[in-house]
DNA sequence: GAATGTGAAGGTTTTCACAGCA
DNA sequence: TGCTGTGAAAACCTTCACATTC
């Protein structure tokens, strides 16, 4: 039996665990830069404001990566997590809507770093179509279905106004795309085999507002 | 006993409940536009992909806003939620770092709509300082502490590179700010009386990547 | 009849605590 | 000795189901 076999993921992994994997990945990247060879669950937890037990439990869902008495090997664990998250490869991403947010995302370095390559831009504005934005020619949104198919796009980012987002996503799905990241403040309808995630930038501000008004204790008060 | 007394919030309200209040608010705003007078927990749930019981339970933490047999009054409930979230007023917001993301946020209409007024911009780039960006003169980041104090800023949005974000937030807190929204992909250290929320835009893409690679079932498979 | 409000049940996630191993 | 890996316990959150009210 091959040693590196991925554990056959019986338990459903929780959303929170996956999100924390992103945090571990980030922390480990930094630890690598700082030339650490190993790191304990305690230190990893400290760096991302979590508990050591949480770190160990999260990682244990995917295998045993540490050494008792020592901790986790930084580079190995980082590689392992990038495998688990599927960011040990590149993804072909299309972005629809080259407005305020859209153009900010094109230049967002973190996406590149993690293998999310925005290779296609779409807009419906005749003044933008055909022009070169950061090295990418903006396509007409009318050609969405064909171009996304032809270009083997795997993930689509939607950054159009809320009022048209549903029409856009309907078109996108016709091209066979199974993963959508939506920045429009609207709840999109997609069939159950499509992965849809929403990025609602007002939500966290509203949380802050709520906390300020209600003296909401951020977590348990120690 | 006054009828409209706000229940004295004994139970700790969960983060998820607060986030769902944002969703209810959004749905109710739409329902108001569509001229609905009342809405049932069932319909509200359908519109935000939740369950009716969840909606009722969430609202029940804050009071009894519905009528049995009828549902919830759209406008009243919307107003009530905006009170709870503290967005029935305006907030003075400063944004630090007028780069890609920063400038996108300045133009982001949703913030305005919900009362978050970006009234101050800071940057460290001499070419930007003093220039007018969407009607706001960009201030020198060196004057952070004084200007934030003088201008009664209540919430600060951080959109600077990860490497300098901690220094910036340290300065911000010297000015007495108690609420920070951080877009830099780094875990900031703040004292326990400061509300800090992070907006990590790669996280949801990583979730999509994970889901695609692992055939992760988005929720329970029905 | 229709739909809320809510204790209680059920399910999920986090934390505890300790056996096991380098 | 130090720290992982993990069942079990505790905490937390969601769903159920029904009494209640309009």
Task: Describe it.
The structure is a homodimer of 222-residue chains. By secondary structure, chain A is an alpha/beta fold. Chain A folds into 2 domains: 4-85, Arc Repressor Mutant, subunit A (Orthogonal Bundle), CATH 1.10.10.10; 91-204, NAD(P)-binding Rossmann-like Domain (Rossmann fold, 3-Layer(aba) Sandwich), CATH 3.40.50.720. Chain A is 42% helix and 17% strand. Chain A contains 9 helices and 9 strands. The first copy, chain A, has helices at residues 15-33, 41-47, 52-60, 74-85, 100-106, 109-113, 144-150, 162-174, 201-214, and strands spanning 38-39, 72-73, 91-96, 116-123, 132-133, 136-140, 155-158, 179-182, 195-198. In chain A, the strands form 2 sheets. The first copy, chain A, has a 7-stranded mixed beta sheet with strand order 5-6-4-3-7-8-9, with helices on both faces. In chain A, strands 1-2 form a two-stranded antiparallel sheet. In chain A, helix 8 links the parallel strand 7 and strand 8 (179-182). In chain A, helix 1 packs antiparallel against helix 4 (74-85). The longest helix of chain A is centred in the N-terminal third of the chain and has 19 residues, at 15-33. Chain A is globular. The model of chain A is unreliable at 1-8 (pLDDT under 50). Chains A and B meet through helix 1, helix 5, strand 8, strand 9 and helix 9 of A and helix 1, helix 5, strand 8, strand 9 and helix 9 of B. The first copy, chain A, binds a DNA duplex (22 and 22 nucleotides) through helix 3.
């Amino acid at each position: 039996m091959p040693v590196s076999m991925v554990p056959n993921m019986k338990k459903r992994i929780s959303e929170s665990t996956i999100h924390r994997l992103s945090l571990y990945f980030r922390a480990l990247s930094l630890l690598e830069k700082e030339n650490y060879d190993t790191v304990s669950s305690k230190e990893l937890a400290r760096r991302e404001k979590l508990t050591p037990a949480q770190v160990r439990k999260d990682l244990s869902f995917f295998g045993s990566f540490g050494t008792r008495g020592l901790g986790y090997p930084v580079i190995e664990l980082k590689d392992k997590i990038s495998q688990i998250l599927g960011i040990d490869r590149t993804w072909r991403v299309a972005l629809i809507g080259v407005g305020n947010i859209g153009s900010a995302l094109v230049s967002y370095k973190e996406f590149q770093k993690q293998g999310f390559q925005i290779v296609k831009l779409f807009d419906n504005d005749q003044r933008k179509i055909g022009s070169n934005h950061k090295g990418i020619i903006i396509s007409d949104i009318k050609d969405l279905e064909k171009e996304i198919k032809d270009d083997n796009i795997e993930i689509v980012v939607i950054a159009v106004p809320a009022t048209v987002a549903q029409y856009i996503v309907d078109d996108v799905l016709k091209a066979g795309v199974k993963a959508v990241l939506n920045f429009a403040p609207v709840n999109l309808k997609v069939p159950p085999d499509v992965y849809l995630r929403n990025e609602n930038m007002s939500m966290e501000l509203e949380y802050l507002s709520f906390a300020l008004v209600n003296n909401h204790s951020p977590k348990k008060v120690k």
